[in-house]
Structure formats: structure tokens, C-alpha cells
Amino acid sequence: ALAEQGFVDSVTPGVSTSATLRVGNTALTGQVRGVGQQYFQVKGVQLAEGQAFNTEAVARYAQEVVIDPNTRQKLFGSGNALGEVILVNNLPVRVIGVTAEQKSVFGNSETLNLWIPYTTAMGRLLGRDYLNSITVRISDSVSTQAAETALVKLMTQRHGTQDFFVMNSDSIRQTVESTTATMTLLVSMIAVISLVVGGIGVMNIMLVSVTERTGEIGVRMAVGARQSDILQQFLIEAVMVCLLGGVLGVGLSLAIGVAFDQFVSNFRMVYSAASIVAAFACSTLIGVLFGYLPARNAARLDPVVALSRD
Q: Which residue, 223, 237, 249, is CA-closest to 292?
């Protein structure tokens, strides 16, 4: 009934369980999912080798399986997996396909994943007559909210009551994006506060430097240094102090990233050249903004007064 709805692109039932996988003397635990023939279309999963099971295979409880690259590597190594038999618990299934490598922001999972027809999973493996879930892919031209409302109405009519719940991936995506935006704003505010505090620290250091070097400034002015020369000197010093802090910060972050990669295998820290350039640009800007006041004070000193303070 769901597949016949105009707003549905593809649909697949689903059951899942963990099972022991055996090939020869190798025995491992994997995640077995019973799915329909449209599962790989629903999930957007491509096959690197072989093919997926079809409607006829689902109807006849076919003992066929599609495996992921991790399962292939662990059970068959570099050899050919197509046509080989895997014992799923005590159920022999023949490999007909291998999925392509799936990219994830969380890194590659070590879980062994297998997909068999849901009829085979229910009738031959689990011995039950109910599903865990139904996954529906909506046509691109249809609003997900409208489709969700129609699905809930249809399922409620067929069940007589709403004895199920719906998870809308688009709503989840929007929630994640909203949370990410909030976290980005929070981190940005913390960064701005840190930059301001650091800039005030640089300004205080430069003010102390100007006070302690008043005599030096007076001598430079006495031998012909212009106000612009003094201003430029202290601005350059302020920028150099901030750039040194930027170098230390970037170096520390790179070191933390390397250490993180050594201890956590599922995540990988990635740094872009643009972010490093932005860090140095911010350091330079902070040096100019917060170094200007001390530099201006130094440039406006009266040479006579400056020399008399030495």
C-alpha cells in the first residue's frame, strides 16, 4: 500500500539482528538486516560488485546476501566473495553483491553488515511474522511534512490506531543544523571574548613597554625620528607579539590533532590551509587594533619630556 502512494519514491521493510557469521574456520559477529528489494535505492547505497536481490528473491525467501566491504575483507580477504557461502547462525546464504565503501564523518565502522531479503530473515532466521521498521523515501517534488502527514493517516487507517511512531530524517537534519548553528554562535562568542581579552593583554604589555622605553623614544626623536616612525615601530612590535601567539596556537592545535589521531581511530582531525591563514590574519588584526593606542602614545611623546624621564 505504501509503494502505491504517489509521493513515495521507494520503500523497504526492515528487521535486524546480530548473528554469528562463519566461513571455514573464521567465526565473527555481524549485524544482519532483513530488507526489501528497494532498500539500496532508499538508502542511496551503491554496489561495487554483483547485484542486489530482486522482487522474485524476496517472494521465494531466497538465501542470498549482500555484504559490505568490511565483511568481505574480514571473511574473504582479497579473494572473490561473489558466489561464496556464509553461515549466518545456522542459515547458509550465498553472496550475490558487495556494497561500495560508505564515507562517513565519523570514520569507518568496524561493524560487519549484511543484508538479506526480509522474508528470509523473518521466516528462516528469526521465525517471526512482524517487522521492526518501514523506511520510505519521498519523491523530491513532495514536501516531507505533507508526506509524513499522509503516511501517518494511511497507517493509522490500516492499523485502526496509531501504534507506531515516525522519524522524519528531514526534521532530524533541520534539528541538527539548528543545533550546529547554535553551537557555532556559542563558540564564536567564546572566541571573540578570548580575542578581546588577549588583545587587552597585548595592549597593557605595550603600554608598559612604552613607559619603560620613554628615554629610548626621546633619543630616537632627538636624532630625527618622525612620529610615524615611532608609531610604525610599536605597531610592528605589537603585531609580532600577536603573531608569535598565533604560531604557538596553531602549533598546539596541530600537536593535539596528531595526538588525537593516535588514540582515536574512528575520527580524524582535518585542518584547512584557509583556517591557518585566518588564524594568522586575526593575530595580525588584533596586533594592529590593540597596539595602536600604545604606539600612538609613544609617537606623541614630547622629545624634551621623554629625555628628561630617562
A: 237
Spell out the residues 6+ positions from residue 124 whose beta carbon is closer than 8 angstroms to its own.
61, 63, 91
The predicted-structure confidence for 171-217, as pLDDT tens digits, reads as follows 788 888 899 999 999 999 998 898 899 899 999 999 998 888 888 88
C-alpha 234/C-alpha 298 separation (Å) is 8
- What the block records as the C-alpha cell of 80 is 572473490
Residue 8 · residue 16 · CB < 8 Å: no
Cell 508526506 belongs to residue: 147
**φ/ψ (deg, to 5) at 9:** -85, -45
Q: Looking at the whole model, is its pTM more than 0.70? A: no
Same domain as 188, residue 58: no
Quote the domain boundaries for residue 84.
8-167
Cell of 52: 542486489
Cα–Cα separations (whole angstroms), residue 103 to 100, 112, 219, 265 = 9, 15, 65, 15
Is residue 283 in some structural domain? yes
